[in-house]
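A favour, since you know our structure tokens better than I do. What I am after is a single protein written out in full by you. Could you add the entry underneath, on a fresh line?


***
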Amino acid sequence: MSQPTFKNRYLYAAALTRSLIAMFTSNQKAIMAGDIELDVNAIRTARNMTEFNEAYTAKVFGFESAKELNMSGSCVQHIKNIHIPMLFINALDDPMCYKQTIPIDEIKQNPNLVLAITRHGGHLAYFGGTGLAPWLPPQLTQFVGAMLEWV
């Protein structure tokens, strides 16, 4: 698996992992009453999202591993079947979809796709840089405007 940036590994992803462990811990009795066999120690000692997903999320959703879970949610297998113009936006500071996970080659092979890679934006494109203003609406407006000029 690719490696996140320092900020993502030690700030965002670590905080998210701790939050998920806390939610598991506070609901442990109800979760463990189910019929899925879970390793409580592995969940509670997970050091990152991959370990948490391996110990909890993959098992709960019926996957063999965190890698299989991640692949099931990936768009890579569907990219070749996209037949309308589509804009993909990935931020380099995304704590979940690191630069190494962006399917650049697959997107390049489909003439209907455009890939925009930005420095900032996080995981869901809410914020740009250190500001708190959402940056996605202007990006979409620019893309749609360019598509309208092109056709």
Notes: The helical segments are 6-26, 28-32, 40-44, 49-60, 66-72, 104-108, 136-150. The first strand starts at residue 86 and ends at 91. The longest helix spans residues 6-26.
